[in-house]
């Protein structure tokens, strides 16, 4: 097999994995702060994909540009969802939280089926079949743009949590919920902000993913499961771990498609998950409890 082909497949896998990583960052942020597992995560991304398709169909708005209004809308949606629905369940048993968010996911899937039907939709932009060439090495433009947006969004998120007062307050809530309340932080508001940030991350990822795959209402559960695999591999609650896990999963899927069969990619992703659980249960960049 030509080494150029292997190199091109590896590059495509890494670029796709960065978009996967941004999707998982949203899940990791929500769990790391609110301690609620968002079982509607993939369904939220599917809704963002449909929103991107509709913006493209109505105004020919490129998904790279559509990411801004879609992310803003999803930030508001996530804030309201957390403040109005999820927050009363934070102190309830985990199975109650699980059933609540699974119910939200099912409502989203069926609403999409009612509105758009089961047929696949997509966007067709000029650069979708083009590549950047450096000698024999090719960088698919759609994947490269998507990966760049994922890295830029992740960098903004890291800077927000590290340098802004609100970000530091959110980190304080994650480290010590009771202490945050004692010093007067509005924990409920900060939790809602965090959920909104996580929703905005998955919305940007959805805008990028729609450049690579067609969207159908039933995509959500598969992406929710993929996000769980990524955050467990990288380390639950670790944002750098989510990006690393996304890259590893994207790479494993690409190599599985090259050396075996495209339908075998999930098998290799879960094999990687099992290896991590066996030898480093806290994830590659996670911390032991």
What brief labels describe this structure?
289 residues; mainly alpha; ABC transporter involved in vitamin B12 uptake, BtuC; 2 strands; globular
**Spatial extent as radius of gyration:** 19 Å
Second CATH tier, the architecture:
Orthogonal Bundle
Tell me the strand percentage band.
Answer: under 5%
Q: Please, how many domains?
A: 1
Shape: globular
Helix content class: over 70%
The CATH class designation is: Mainly Alpha
Number of helices: 11
Largest sheet: 2 strands, antiparallel
The secondary-structure element order is HHHHEEHHHHHHH
Short structural description:
With about 290 residues, this protein is mainly α. Helices cover about 75% and strands about 5% of the residues.
What can you see in these coordinates?
A two-stranded antiparallel ribbon has the order 1-2. The mean pLDDT is 94. The protein has a single domain, classed as ABC transporter involved in vitamin B12 uptake, BtuC. The chain has helices spanning 3-34, 41-59, 63-86, 94-116, 141-163, 165-175, 177-182, 187-209, 220-234, 239-259, 265-279; strands at residues 131-134, 137-140. Helix 2 packs across helix 3 (63-86), helix 2 (41-59) packs across helix 8 and helix 9 (220-234) packs parallel to helix 11. The chain is an all-alpha fold and 289 residues long.
Give the topology.
Layout (H helix, E strand, L loop, with lengths): L2 H32 L6 H19 L3 H24 L7 H23 L14 E4 L2 E4 H23 L1 H11 L1 H6 L4 H23 L10 H15 L4 H21 L5 H15 L10
Helix pairs in contact: 1-5, 1-8, 1-9, 1-10, 2-3, 2-4, 2-8, 2-9, 3-8, 5-6, 5-8, 6-8, 9-10, 9-11, 10-11
């Amino acid at each position: 097999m030509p080494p150029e082909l292997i190199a091109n497949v590896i590059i495509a896998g890494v670029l796709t994995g960065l978009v996967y990583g941004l999707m998982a960052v949203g899940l990791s942020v929500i769990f790391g702060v609110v301690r609620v597992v968002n079982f509607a995560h993939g369904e939220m991304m599917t809704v963002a994909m449909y929103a991107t398709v509709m913006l493209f169909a109505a105004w020919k708005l490129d998904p790279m540009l559509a990411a801004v209004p879609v992310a803003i809308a999803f930030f508001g949606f996530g804030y309201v969802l957390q403040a109005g629905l999820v927050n009363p369940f934070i102190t309830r048993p985990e199975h109650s939280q699980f059933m609540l968010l699974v119910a939200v996911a099912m409502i989203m899937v069926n609403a999409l089926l009612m509105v758009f039907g089961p047929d696949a939709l997509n966007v067709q932009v000029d650069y979708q079949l083009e590549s950047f060439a450096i000698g024999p090495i090719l960088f698919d433009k759609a994947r490269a743009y998507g990966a760049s947006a994922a890295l830029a969004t992740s960098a903004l998120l890291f800077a927000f949590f590290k340098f802004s007062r609100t970000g530091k307050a959110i980190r304080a809530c994650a480290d010590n919920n009771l202490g945050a309340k004692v010093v007067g932080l509005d924990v409920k508001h900060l939790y809602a902000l965090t959920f909104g940030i996580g929703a905005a991350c998955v919305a940007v990822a959805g805008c990028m993913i729609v450049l690579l795959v067609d969207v159908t209402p039933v995509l959500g559960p598969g992406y929710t499961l993929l996000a769980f695999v990524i955050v467990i591999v990288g380390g639950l609650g670790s944002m750098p771990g989510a990006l690393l896990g996304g890259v590893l999963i994207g790479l494993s899927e690409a190599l599985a498609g090259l050396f075996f069969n495209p339908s075998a990619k999930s098998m290799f992703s879960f094999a990687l998950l099992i290896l991590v659980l066996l030898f480093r249960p806290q994830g590659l960049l996670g911390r032991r409890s």
